[in-house]
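Hi R.,

Here are the chain sequences for the assembly we discussed:
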Amino acid sequence: DAGVIQSPRHEVTEMGQEVTLRCKPISGHNSLFWYRQTMMRGLELLIYFNNNVPIDDSGMPEDRFSAKMPNASFSTLKIQPSEPRDSAVYFCASTTRSYNEQFFGPGTRLTVL
Amino acid sequence: DAKTTQPPSMDCAEGRAANLPCNHSTISGNEYVYWYRQIHSQGPQYIIHGLKNNETNEMASLIITEDRKSSTLILPHATLRDTAVYYCIVRVDNAGNMLTFGGGTRLMVKP
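And here is the predicted structure of the full complex:
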């Protein structure tokens, strides 16, 4: 079992550029979560999906952030345009009702210059 | 609004038991206590959870007070690889629900 897969692992971009982060949840999991971690704010939930449907996006900081889950095996988090304050580690996690735990991916470290 | 309170940091000698406390005085009757940890540069990892009874698995033990207002995570024989930030979280036991992370406790296991 490959676990949750995130790509890229590291992304360096310039302010104003579009950034797309990708996540492949564990096969069979029907809940997917996007988190962001910074030194100042810690780990915070951005958005989560159940059965590919966004359930709570109240953590998405601004309209510059958008997330999609076109099918059960793929999700994207897009930032357009990116700003230096978006620099953080972005984690994706998945789970299903059979489990009590969320399984986290290795994260994407985003640096916006 | 913080639902849990944890000390920001703790030290533990290698091979000794690490006891990590958590206060959750406003916990509701249907909320469970969950523990996750995050080793440097990795994603958080589930450790254990419980409702009101003490729980044990291959990683740790969870002791919940009778009034459920506090709990203790016990790593019986801490190793250097247990150095991590440990998060105590209370939530309704629904896998589809989100996790709300607080500041956690940074545990440093020393040789």
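Chain A has a mean pLDDT of 94. Chain A touches chain B through 27 residues (CB under 8 Å).

Let me know if anything looks off.

Best,
T.
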